[in-house]
Design a protein that fits this description.
Oligomer: heterodimer
Largest sheet of chain A: 3 strands, antiparallel
Order of helices and strands of chain B: HHEEHEEEEHE
Radius of gyration of chain B: 17 Å
Distance between the termini of chain B: 36 Å
Low-confidence stretches of chain A: none
Helix content of chain A: 40-55%
Shape of chain B: globular
Low-confidence stretches of chain B: none
Distance between the termini of chain A: 47 Å
Chain lengths: ~400, ~160
């Protein structure tokens, strides 16, 4: 054999298959990858630093911009962490609406994952269908919070406002229509020869390695680890709903694909149960020093006005201490580690982004594979650079 | 120290095994935080992983307590997938010697997380295989998440508007 020649190829940061601004420096022996060196940070905005200079209510808006494909999951993790710090109970209606929105967000995020993952491997049709369905959820976002992406709909202690008229009907429509759409995607992909050849045996990572590299979420379950925070460390009343946690066997891209598709069907299942249990009631905790009072009280009572003024001008103090709260975000375990010194701003807010840690395994998963398969591996890890770089 | 922390299996085992290294045990909102000496952090982590099944290192980060001595706390958030419970391990790192042993040998996930902590706090992880900046550019000066690092960045007029 002739002497081995290593070629170095740069991929990204402006590359459609890197899902944002990920840059990979790849050392190639022919078409086989010898080494991958990821470069990240192109989208670093210093969210953790900025949050130290904002009150707890204000820091919420920064969390929308982490995983911009799943804003409400980020909001949920954040408000839960602050509520844990304060020891605040959230009314049941608010919790149920949070679960509904978190599951719709999971659908929305998984739809983008499926769309882009399939597009990367060459299935254009799936991309168009997924984005069409995603639009339904986006318009619900808009009706609910006024924004399609930067929602900031949740509040510490509950929700910013109650749902709009016709919300239940919109959720019902998702529940009724989406399983049919999933059948269409599966019809296009699950037995598609090209899809199978590109995904079976691609990006294999064993359960031990996946845990060792800190992979969480559907990517970990695809490797056969039966662990879901919604079931095992429930929050927001997830313990009231019954749902299956799918796991894979072969630890490859195809199994991760199947896991996510079952997860989408289970999200519909949770949505149905949550919608059936949705009852009228308050949407904000009864904690006037933390939650903004309703406008009626601000205009008509002196206490309401004072509370509003205090919360808006200096925020609310949180007791000294530290908490870690995580949620099962669409991409994995999204954790917030908050340190409070007793002031009205977080002394330190650490965001544990699932995509960042999952991407750390790409060096391991990509080594020894063909360069074309790397695109499938990036797709199956389901990364979002807004969350990786923060 | 409250009852939950006292009866925590990991805390009991750690105190048995490393009586001099466990400096403090705290419990807040049902979460247990163990502060250990930085010299023993790798041993303790390996013990927690192999004996007490904290197999997932969720997070490594640091907190800058500017003005206190020691200045930094390196924080490890651990999770046990078999037992479904969490444990937080902290180790103090002084300003004059910002070095601590790397736990990459115990969990591979520490690789990028320690790089980030190095990048943003300037804490050196001894024994890390590839300790480079990760979010900031290679030629960046300073460590942005330190409390004495200006919010608006170096060499710029301080921001005079309202922050909150």
């Amino acid at each position: 054999m002739a002497n081995k020649e290593i070629m170095t190829v740069n991929m990204g940061p402006q590359h459609p298959s890197t899902h944002g601004v990920l840059r990979l420096v790849i050392e190639l022996d022919g078409e086989v990858i010898e080494k991958i060196t990821p470069h990240i940070g192109y989208l670093h905005r210093g969210v953790e630093k900025l949050s130290e200079h904002r009150t707890y209510h204000q820091a919420m808006t920064l969390t929308d911009r982490l995983d911009y494909l799943a804003p409400m999951s980020n909001n949920l993790g954040y408000v839960l962490a602050v509520e844990k710090l304060l020891g605040l109970e959230v009314p049941e209606r608010a919790q149920t609406i949070r679960v509904i929105m978190a599951e719709l967000t999971r659908l929305k995020s998984h739809l983008v994952w499926l769309a882009c993952h399939a597009l990367d491997i060459g299935a254009m049709t799936v991309f168009l269908y997924c984005f069409r369905e995603r639009e339904q959820i986006m318009s619900m976002y808009e009706k609910l919070s006024g924004a399609r992406m930067t929602s900031s709909y949740f509040r510490v202690g509950g929700l910013s406002q109650d749902v709009y008229d016709g919300f239940e009907a919109d959720v019902r429509r998702v529940i009724d229509e989406f399983p049919g759409y999933f059948d269409v995607y599966e019809g296009l992909l699950t037995k598609n020869t090209i899809w199978l050849q590109r995904t079976i045996g691609n990006g294999v990572i064993s359960a031990e390695d996946a845990i060792d590299y800190g992979i969480t979420g559907p990517a970990l379950r695809g490797s056969g680890v039966d662990w879901d925070l919604r079931r095992d460390n429930p929050y927001s009343g997830y313990d009231k709903y019954s749902f299956k946690v799918p796991v894979g066997e072969k630890c490859d891209t195809f199994d991760r694909y199947k896991v996510r598709l079952v997860e989408m069907r289970e999200a519909i299942n949770i949505l149905r149960q949550a919608l059936d249990s949705l009852k009228p009631g308050p949407i904000l905790a009864d904690s006037p020093k933390v939650c903004y009072p309703p406008k009626e009280r601000v205009y008509n009572s002196i206490e309401g006005l004072i509370h509003h003024f205090k919360i808006a001008s200096e925020g609310f103090p949180a007791p000294e201490g530290e908490v870690y709260q995580s949620v099962e975000a669409p991409k994995g375990e999204l954790g917030y580690y908050l340190v409070s010194d007793g002031g009205t701003k977080p002394y330190r807010m650490r965001i544990r982004p699932p995509s960042f840690v999952n991407l750390g395994a790409i060096e391991k998963m990509g080594k020894g594979t063909m360069i074309a398969d790397l695109v499938a591996i990036i797709g199956t890890l389901d990364i979002v650079l807004g969350e990786i770089d923060r | 120290m409250s009852a939950i922390a006292e009866n925590n299996r990991a805390v009991i085992r750690l105190k048995e095994k490393f009586p001099s290294a466990v400096q403090d045990v705290k419990e807040f909102r049902d979460e247990v935080t163990v502060t250990v000496s930085k010299e023993n952090v790798v041993e303790i982590c390996r013990f927690l992983k192999t004996e007490l099944r904290y197999n997932l290192l969720t997070d490594v980060t640091a907190v800058d307590y500017l003005g206190k001595d020691p200045r930094f706390m390196v924080v490890y958030n651990l999770y046990s997938i078999p037992n479904k419970d969490r444990l937080r391990v902290k180790a103090a790192v002084g300003e004059d010697n910002t070095r601590i042993d790397s736990v990459v040998g115990v969990w591979n996930s520490a690789n990028w997380l320690e790089r980030e902590t190095f990048d943003l706090f300037g804490i050196t992880f001894v024994g890390h295989p590839d300790l480079r900046r990760i979010l900031m550019t290679d030629d960046w000066e300073g460590h942005p998440l330190r409390k004495d690092y200006p919010l608006q960045g170096p060499g710029r007029e301080p921001y005079k508007g309202r922050l909150s």
